[in-house]
Specification:
Number of helices: 15
Strand content: under 5%
Radius of gyration: 26 Å
Distance between the termini: 74 Å
Membrane topology: Multi-pass membrane protein
Keywords: Membrane, Transmembrane, Transmembrane helix
Structural class: mainly alpha
Protein name: Wax synthase domain-containing protein
InterPro entries: Wax_synthase_dom
Largest sheet: none
Subcellular location: Membrane
Length: about 450
């Protein structure tokens, strides 16, 4: 009898430990996959069978990580981060191991940039390459990576202390601004507002169509950029990286006067390298379509946005949005149609004005006494940018609710949004406004920032 009691108590204790062990294993999977990618990139040769078998193992780990993230009793935002990391890490592993085929010599040449280095330097360099989704300071650096702002006065001569002070100040200012936006949003809602009325409530004030584009400039951009700046300051402060390894995450919002420029210039480019490489391979090897073909270009765009849609769909599901209600795929894939419309209108306008432009060029050449063709580089007219901003705002106003409204409602039902609003309620708006005003003066006067 005592033996049975002891066996039963041991079984109950083991059952109570299983969820904790499972939670620990799932949280450790990203680190395990990270180390496995480093080993495969450093210690296997290009095209080797061991590399391909290791990649299969990595993909299996990512599937396990994404699957168990939804089964664990953890905060929805943490589960969403685990799911996003699973897909993004898989795509980056496929890119590095099979498409770019990075090996130890590439890491030595592109990351360390010197023939002789210590083992610790090689390990740190290899690990940093695996986190470098934009390929910064390598031959694979993605197109339109934002340059350092003029206020840096030359990033090479910038001291670590000045860099950290700048990043921390601007990062805190951006996060403070996001809190003010959240607090203002919270004060417009009644305490008993149902989840389905969180965002539609803006219709009562006629702000429905103007709110959506602003979300991509204020809370989304500032929140992501603020965390990026704080992470860069921490990394540089402890000596893991250099200031040159942290170019700005976003370009100026003034560059987003077409949808192509919105996603390809203004928005962060962290997904561009792995997603674009995989999409190009699928389009060329699977369908025989290169970017030189018109259909191939839009097929590539569709595949890139499909991968982005799947990534955000995983985030939605793990955040509490039913997959049938998620608008991630529809939202991101719709930009393929938007690009077609945008390119078609621009091509039509180019053909209409082409003849007039040629006549003006000939007249200009005759006045200058030159009969050869002259290439004239002109800036985009202001009126064209105004029309472009109106077009971008109109498309985002129509398409953003499809994606964002189910996402915010899902967060509300899971309790994530009320958590943030409850935190915002504890903040004194006068203190926030005063701090924001002081930090704004400091940022603009001392550091400079381009929104």
């Amino acid at each position: 009898m005592p033996a049975n009691v002891s066996w039963g108590s041991d079984t109950a204790g083991l059952n109570s430990l299983l969820p904790q062990l499972l939670r620990l294993v799932v949280r450790a999977l990203p680190a395990c996959a990270f180390v496995a990618r480093y080993i495969l990139c450093t210690y296997t040769n290009k095209g080797a069978l061991s590399r391909r078998l290791g990649l299969i193992l990595l993909l299996c780990l990512s599937v396990v990580q994404g699957t168990f993230a939804s089964l664990l009793d953890i905060h929805p935002m943490i589960a969403a981060e685990l799911g996003i990391d699973a897909l993004l890490s898989s795509c980056h592993a496929i890119n590095l191991l099979t498409l770019v085929e990075v090996d130890a010599s590439d890491l030595q040449r592109e990351v360390l940039r010197r023939p002789h280095s210590t083992s610790l330097e090689r390990i740190c360099g290899g690990l940093s390459m695996l986190c470098n989704y934009r390929g910064v300071r390598t031959k694979w650096q993605v197109k339109n990576t934002p340059p350092f702002p003029p206020s840096f006065d030359g990033a090479k001569s910038l001291s670590h202390g000045d860099f950290c002070a700048r990043q921390i100040t601007i990062g805190l200012w951006e996060i403070n601004t996001v809190w003010l936006v959240v607090l203002s949003f919270q004060r417009t809602m009644q305490p008993d507002t149902p989840c389905g009325r969180i965002l539609p409530g803006f219709r009562d004030w006629g702000l429905w169509h103007t709110t959506w584009p602003l979300l991509w400039i204020l809370p989304f951009r500032l929140g992501i950029d603020g965390l990026y700046r704080l992470a860069s300051a921490a990394s540089v402060a402890v000596g893991l990286t250099e200031p040159l390894d942290w170019p700005p995450a976003f370009s100026s919002a003034r560059e987003a006067w077409t949808l192509r420029r919105f996603w390809g210039v203004y928005w962060h480019q962290w997904l561009r390298w792995p997603f674009s490489a995989i999409s190009t391979t699928i389009a060329e090897n699977g369908f025989g379509m290169t970017k030189a073909h018109l259909v191939g270009r839009y097929m590539h765009v569709l595949f890139v946005f499909t991968l982005s849609g799947v990534l955000h769909l995983i985030s939605d599901v793990l955040s509490g949005v039913p997959w049938r209600k998620s608008g991630s795929l529809l939202f991101f894939c719709s930009f393929t149609l938007a690009f077609m419309i945008e390119d078609g209108v621009q091509e039509l306008w180019r053909r209409i004005t082409e003849k007039q432009g040629k006549e003006q060029a000939v007249q200009s050449n005759e006045k200058c006494g030159r009969m050869s063709a002259v290439e004239v580089v002109t800036s985009t007219p202001v009126w064209k940018k105004v029309v472009g901003f109106a077009w971008v705002g109109a498309w985002l106003s129509v398409s953003s609710p499809v994606y964002l409204q189910p996402f915010f409602e899902g967060l509300c039902r899971q309790g994530s949004t009320p958590d943030y609003l409850h935190m915002a309620q504890r903040l004194d708006p006068m203190v926030l406004c005063g701090g924001m005003a002081a930090m704004t003066l400091l940022v603009w006067h001392r550091f400079g920032i381009d929104l």
